[in-house]
From TrEMBL:
Family indicated by similarity: Belongs to the peptidase S10 family.
Enzyme Commission designation: 3.4.16.-
Keyword terms: Carboxypeptidase, Hydrolase, Protease, Signal
KW Hydrolase (keyword) present: yes
Keyword Transferase: no
Annotated source species: Oryza glaberrima (African rice)
Gene name of the encoded protein: LOC127774309
Annotated signal peptide: 1-25
Gene Ontology biological-process annotations: proteolysis
UniProt GO molecular function: serine-type carboxypeptidase activity
Protein name, entry field: Carboxypeptidase
Amino acid sequence: MAPPSRPFYLVHVVIFVAVSLSVTAATATAAAVLPRGALPTKSGYLPIPPAANASLYFAFYEATEPVTPPATTPLLVWLEGGPGCSGFLSNFLQIGPYLFAGGSLSPNPFAWNRRFGLLFIDSPLGTGFSVAPSPAAIPTNQSVVADHVLAALQSFLSLEPSFRARPLYLTGESYAGKTIPAAGALIVATNPTLPEQKRINLRGVAIGNGMTHPVAEVTTHADIAYFMGLINAKQKRAAEAMQAEAVALTREERWREASAARARLMSWLENATGVVTLLDVEVQQSVAVMAAGLADFLSTAEVKAAVGARPDVAWEACSAAVGAAQEEDVMKSAKRDVEALLRRGASPTATATPTRVLLYEGIRDVGNGPVCAEAWLRELEWDGLAAFQDAGRAVWRSGGGLAGYVQRHGALVHVAVYGAGHFVPYSQGRVAQEMIEDWVFRKGLFSAATV
């Protein structure tokens, strides 16, 4: 989650110390600063060897109302977008146990750590409370980011022996639509080379409004804006010309120029439509306003101590340095990583099952909505694609109202969420909570009989 003013129109848009793997205790001082439920169960820094003097900040919240035994209670790992936006944005504005608004915290009735352990990791280096040892240490591509996420997960799972066997799901939104499949595919490829006690029990990945295969997604924005009634036919043609430029530069692997071309397109569309943000065409307030208040809150010494962050780190919602470092990564694709997850176990002799993939998007998002996802899904090289495309699109109702639409086949599920934009849990907290719980536990429209 991130302010819409990020460079490149990206949605989201440490020095290693001996105690970096230590856990922050809920002291009396911390309890006075944060409500007990808002205090992480564990927090601190996870070493990411072989990177020198580097670690990623984490905050973990254990399940508050689990319906499974502790040894089998799933773990959700949340990776924020950006690139370079902190997981604390979604922690305190969307899915964490407490929400920040108006300068204060209140319980979140739709927290994702109700049924699951919920782990936030500030990634890549330079993001949130994760300090890069030097500017050169900030990753410039998803391959390195995935290496660091895997190393951090290994460090986290080593904190308690019971963590290792628990089912693990990588989740997140926006630019994490690249990081999640990259890290997931790396886990799948690495597991067979490790002793059993070091393997990660990855069961699935869930991507919200993801930027996964940009060269296909960038071709949709003019159509989306036009059919929403936000631009006319003449403007649509102008936007299509800018889209074609971004595609051509991407095909030529002129990555920095392609990124700049996409940025011009999105900026032009934002000006032409006059909406506050293309992330959600119905909102009237910028996310940046809320993020600014959260930055003040997380900058106080007592709060830093309570969440296990280094006292010398200045938290910012989204890092410009990380965004700049990954500028050439913007138009690169993670589609092959999604294919690797879906293909796992596809051969007749394979024993492992495919990794489950959930894609969900709010329909009010022009930049990374359902139409964008459908555009790149058409290009998947996966033997289940034809059956997926032929599958029915079920109307999903929740609490007596329309929640969205669900299409599924095999390990792949695609959900279009009604009444939401880019930040689905922010706009539709109850629906998002129901979705992630039903998907993990294979209930309702996500039941094992149909998925």
